[in-house]
Specification:
The structure holds two protein chains of two kinds. By secondary structure, chain A is an alpha/beta fold. Chain A contains 13 helices and 15 strands. In chain A, helix 4 packs across helix 5 and helix 6 packs across helix 11. The chains are: A alpha/beta, B alpha/beta.
């Protein structure tokens, strides 16, 4: 997969940009607030169809464009793939409907209208940001969002299950609220009858999401463990623990309780851990909902499921969120991202596009060189920096170089 | 600016309240009626009046009708052991057009959608059960189901066809009703899902195609 051309119109601070890429490495240098991050975010937006910082899509449109008759923003890319000789044309146009109206997103693949479900996964990308540290020290929501964006790019099935799960949960929460207002008794046959369908659907789609996350975290751990050893000079053993909101049935209840409290050194699997399937998991999900029906009605909300998942990072057995230093947290986040690249390559058979936003400045010499080594052999990586000296002359000699200033990008004249 | 005569603006406003009609179309329609033959306007007026005066909901199937019971429910030729459950009156028209169905209908007037606060009590579910039972007024669908268990053998209904929409709300409704009816030993069926006739296989989305494969039939 290779991004050969990018075109931006009214995207953030870019009025108009057309840029061609050649070679595996591209390096953008510029002062702060010139548009380096916006450039990488545009590419990531096209890969995931979601804005990077969970900002509203309105903010994507350049504010200067409001003076245009019809305010709009457009991101388009040409991608070369191994699978087909015909280049892939991807495009997202955001335009405003009427005066002060909502923005509408239109997605095109090779010129024809598609859904965002069809776009995600066409051009896969992994984005490295200085604020990746939030994955370790931030809220569980950040980690779930991270897992979702990575998995949606890998698996269409996952995207579908996740969106179905969310749709069903909205209905189920509506029903639980209604039941709460009616002071319904959890053991009433009528209550069971009304919940039956939604429980069935919630657990079917939710189990698919959780089984895939469980498997993905195991995959990530394998790669991340190795990367973390290299980055920490063989001093730290990184472990990733997937923390579902109830026991999925792959360990004893006592072990699950210990896992939640982080007192579990080693999980003794009661069954083959690698083969945890949605079908095996669903009965446990169903049983949990059945036994906690009263609590859920009292809360008027779905209390168990993938929307309550978390992920824990351990270095030498210690929870990095609470006990890790900034440096350890940063290293763990970097190991995770590098592991994601590897896992995505394994899962899809093609390496994703690497987008690194001003990552070097945060790293010491050892981590820099590990990261640069990891970049060797990838089909394409785009990097931004404020300072050319963050990169070795050898690295710069191999890369395509640009300078970014005030929403314009120029090739570096030697 | 000279204001328009009041009867004209009144009509324009009335048209403007209809779905799909904006201010421009509303005034065009009003001016058309103003200029055209009086008979056209009067016909429209009578039609509108009769629409409300002479239609009612059939007390048996809850479809829109001009008599009670409606023509379908009153037709002795139709199979009374078969009831097709649909969401909206328009769905009855769609199934009638197939000429493949000779049973009776039951219109729910909606589908279960908890997110919008629509539950089984807001639909004609209790009425459906009462219809099968043909007895006392039940307080809730569940109670009706319970008392129906005893009487089911006297009912002439043998099969319920659930023809709610194949979306999540329609599926929820179908599942809810089938759970109520199953214990009574009545046959409950659901419309098959699959490919549209005259469609192209390559343009079918994978869920529909998957369902079509799962439900394939012997040739």
């Amino acid at each position: 997969m290779y991004l050969s051309h990018l075109s931006l119109t009214h995207f953030r601070n870019y009025q108009k940009l057309e840029i061609d890429f050649s070679g595996p490495l591209t390096l953008f240098q510029g002062e702060n607030a010139q548009g380096k991050t916006n450039l990488l975010e545009a590419i990531y937006y096209l890969a995931t169809s979601k804005p990077v910082h969970a900002q509203t899509e309105r903010e994507i449109v350049d504010w200067l464009a409001e003076d245009e008759p019809i305010p709009f923003a457009r991101v388009a890319a040409t991608v070369l793939t191994d699978a087909s000789r015909r280049p892939l044309e991807l495009e997202i146009v955001l335009s405003q409907r009427g005066e002060g109206g909502a923005f509408q997103k239109q997605i095109k693949i090779n010129g024809s209208n598609k859904r965002s479900l069809d776009l995600v996964g066409q051009m896969r990308a992994v984005l490295f940001l200085p604020e990746d540290i939030k994955l370790v020290d931030g809220s569980p929501g950040e980690r779930r969002r991270y897992l979702d964006i990575a998995l949606c790019q890998i698996s269409r099935e996952y995207t579908r299950s996740l969106s179905q799960f969310q749709k069903v949960m909205t209905h189920r929460n509506g029903l639980l609220k209604t039941l709460r207002e009616q002071n319904a008794r959890p053991n009433d046959a009528n209550v069971a009858g009304q919940l039956a369908f939604w429980d069935e659907q919630l657990t079917a789609h939710g189990s698919a999401v959780m089984a895939r996350r469980h498997q993905f975290v195991q995959q990530l751990e394998q790669c991340a463990h190795q990367r973390h050893l290299e980055l920490s000079d063989e001093r730290e053993q990184l472990a990733l623990q997937y923390l579902p909101s109830f026991n999925l049935g792959n360990m004893s209840d006592a072990d699950y309780a210990r896992l939640k409290e982080n007192r579990l050194d080693r999980i003794e699997p009661v069954q083959d851990n690698n083969g945890l399937t949605a079908e095996q998991l669903q009965p446990h999900f169903m049983a949990k909902l059945a036994s906690r029906r009263g609590r859920e009605i009292a809360a008027g909300n779905t209390l168990y499921g993938p929307h309550r998942d978390d992920l824990r990072f351990l270095a030498n057995g210690r929870d990095l969120r609470t006990y890790g230093s900034r440096g350890q947290q940063r290293t763990a986040a970097l190991s995770l991202k590098l592991a994601e690249v590897q896992a995505m390559t394994v899962a899809t058979g093609a390496a994703p596009l690497l987008l690194l936003d001003d990552v070097m400045s945060e790293l010491d010499a050892v981590r820099r060189s590990t990261l640069l080594t990891a970049l060797e052999g990838v089909p394409q990586a785009l990097l931004t920096t404020t300072d050319w000296d963050d990169f070795t002359p050898e690295f710069r000699a191999r890369a395509q170089l640009f300078t970014v200033a005030k929403g314009a990008i120029l090739p570096l004249s030697a | 600016m000279q204001p328009l005569a009041e009867p004209v603006t009144k009509l324009i406003d009335a048209f403007g309240q209809l779905p799909g009609i904006g201010p421009k179309t509303a005034s065009r329609l009003a001016y058309f009626l103003l200029r055209s033959d009086a008979a056209i306007a009067l016909n429209l007026a009578t039609a509108l009046q009769e629409l409300k005066e002479k239609t009612l909901f059939c007390s048996v199937c809850h479809n829109i009708a001009d008599q009670d019971p409606c023509a379908i429910c009153a037709n002795a030729q139709r199979d009374r052991s078969l009831i097709c459950v649909v969401e909206e009156p328009l769905d009855v028209q769609a199934i009638e057009r197939t000429r493949e169905f000779h049973g009776l209908y039951h219109v729910l007037h909606g589908a279960i959608s908890p997110a919008d606060g629509i539950g089984p009590d807001d639909l004609k579910v209790a009425e459906l059960l009462r219809r099968i039972q043909q007895g006392a007024q039940p307080a809730s669908p569940e109670q009706a189901a319970a008392s129906l268990l005893a009487q089911v053998h006297t009912s002439e209904v043998r099969e319920i066809v659930l023809a709610t929409n194949p979306n999540i709300e329609g599926e929820a409704t179908a599942m809810y009703i089938s759970r109520l009816l199953k214990p009574m030993g009545i046959r409950v069926t659901r419309l098959a899902r699959g490919l549209p006739v005259g469609g192209d296989l390559e343009y079918a989305d994978e869920v529909t195609l998957g369902r079509a494969l799962a439900g394939r039939s012997e040739m």
